[in-house]
Amino acid sequence: MKVLMLGWEFPPFFAGGAGIVCYELTREMVKMDDVDLTYVMPFGPDEIRNQHLRILLADRFKGKKINFKKIPSLLSAYMTQESYMEERQRLISAGKTGLGADNTLSLYGQNLIEEVYNFAGRVRTIVEDESFDVVHAHDWTTFPAAIQASEYMRKPLIVHMHITEFDKSGGNGADPHIYSIEKEGMEKADKIITISRRVKDGLIKNYGINPNKIEIVYHAKVDVGPDMNFDFPKFKDKNKVILYAGRMTLQKGPDYFVEAARKVCNFYDNVIFIMAGSGDQLQKMIKRTIELGISDKFLFHGFYTRDDANKFFSMADIYVMPSVSEPFGLVAFEAMSKGTPTIISKQSGASEILNNVFKVDFWDSDMMANQIVSLLKHNALSNTMKREGYSEVNKLTWDKPARRCVDIYKELTEKK
C-alpha cells in the first residue's frame, strides 16, 4: 500500500508534539511489509533548516522504506498569521531571502493562509507524477494540499487532528480563516483521527462533525534519549526542582504554575522552579514572579532543545503540566519515562489514559500546590509515583497506534 503522508515538521526540525508523533508513527509503519510511505513536508531556507533535515535523512532512515519530499516553505508548527509575518520579515531583514540558490521570495506567500495554498499547489505536482492509495494529513496547514491530492487521485483522505484553533487560543476565540480550513478538511475526509476524547468532543461541539467519522488513536511513550550525565547546577545541592516545560502561551497555563509556586513557597523553602519555554507570556510570567516576591525561586530558560529537555527531566524532582486546554500532552510521557513524578491538568488528553500521576483542574492552584508539597514532603509517595509512572508509560508503545492507522487505510481502500 502506497501512503502519502503530509506534515509540516519532523524531528529534529519540529516545534511541537505533532512532529514527534509523525516520527514515531512513521518509524513503526516502515517496519510493516504492507506499507510504502512517502512523507511530504514544507521546508524552510537552507541556511536555517536544511542541515537538520539532511542529518535526519542520512542517519535516521537510511535504507528504510520511507521517502522524503521537501517542499520549500516558511511554515512551522503552531504558527499564527502574525508569527508567520514576523518570520518572513525577519528573514528579509537578515538577507536570507532565498530558498536554495535562486535568492528570491517568489516561493514565500505574503501571509500564512497564502502559504498553505502554495504548499497545496506544490503537493499537487507530486501526485500528478505519482499515484498513491491513501492520503494521511496532519493538522490544518496540510488540509488544502491533502484535499487536492485526494480529489485528483480519487483516493481516500484521512485527516489527523492533533490540535484545533479552539485549543491553541485557550478558549479566547478561533481565527476564522484557519477554522474554515479545519472544517473543510474534516468534512471532506473519509476518516478523522483524533489523539484524545477531548479533541473528539471538541470536533463534534465546535465543528459539527459526525462522530461516526472520528476515531481516537492515543499516543504512546516518547523516546527522550538516555539520562544525561552532567554536573547539576549548585542550586540542586540543597533544593528540590519543580519543572514547567512548554510554550509560554495562555493554552499551556504558565500563570497557574506561578500562582501554585507562590503557595508552595509558603510551606517549603528549599525549592527552585524552572520554567523552560518561549512564548508571548514569558515576560508577563517574569514580571509576575517579581510582583509576588518569589523571583529568587525561579529560573526562566526560554527556548529549549531536546538535549536541554533531557537535562531538565534528569534534574527535576517534579514535573507539572498545568494546561488550560491540552489535546494530549506528550511531555507528561517524557517526564514519566525519566522517572519524574508528574502532575497533569485534568483538561488534557493524557489524563484520559494515565493513572500513576496526580490530576488537577488547571484553575485550582490550591490543589496544585498541595500536590507539589505532598510529593516534596513524602519520599515514599514520590518514590512510588516514580516507579509506577515509569512502569506504566513504558508499556505504551507506538506499534499499536501505527498498526491502527494502517488498518484504517485498509478499511477505506477496500470500501473505495
Mean pLDDT metric: 83
Amino-to-carboxy terminus distance: 14 Å
Main sheet: strand order: 3-2-1-4-5-6-7
What class, by secondary structure content? alpha/beta
Series of secondary-structure elements, N-terminal to C-terminal: EHEHEHHEHEHHEHEEHEHEHEHEEHHH
CATH superfamily of the largest domain: Glycogen Phosphorylase B
Proportion of strand residues: 15-25%
Biggest sheet character: 7 strands, parallel
Computed over alpha carbons, the radius of gyration is 22 Å
Number of strands: 13
CATH C-level class of the largest domain is Alpha Beta
- The global form is elongated
Return the CATH architecture of the largest domain: 3-Layer(aba) Sandwich
Q: Report the CATH topology name of the largest domain.
A: Rossmann fold
Helix content: 40-55%
pLDDT under 50 segments (min length 5)? 44-64, 96-109
Number of distinct helices:
15
Number of domains: 2
How would you concisely characterize the structure shown here?
With 416 residues, the protein is of the alpha/beta class.
If you had to describe this structure to a student in words, what would you say it looks like?
By secondary structure, this protein is of the alpha/beta class. The chain folds into two domains: 2-220 and 397-415, Rossmann fold (3-Layer(aba) Sandwich), CATH 3.40.50.2000; 234-394, Glycogen Phosphorylase B (Rossmann fold), CATH 3.40.50.2000. It contains 15 helices and 13 strands. The chain has helices spanning 17-29, 46-59, 81-93, 112-129, 143-153, 165-168, 176-188, 197-207, 254-265, 282-291, 306-315, 330-337, 365-377, 379-394, 399-415; strands at residues 2-6, 36-43, 66-72, 134-138, 157-161, 191-194, 214-216, 240-245, 271-276, 298-302, 318-321, 342-345, 358-360. The strands form two sheets. Strands 3-2-1-4-5-6-7 form a seven-stranded parallel beta sheet, with helices on both faces. Strands 10-9-8-11-12-13 form a six-stranded parallel beta sheet, with helices on both faces. Helix 4 runs parallel beside helix 5 and helix 5 packs parallel to helix 7 (176-188). The protein is elongated and about 65 Å long. The two termini are 14 Å apart.
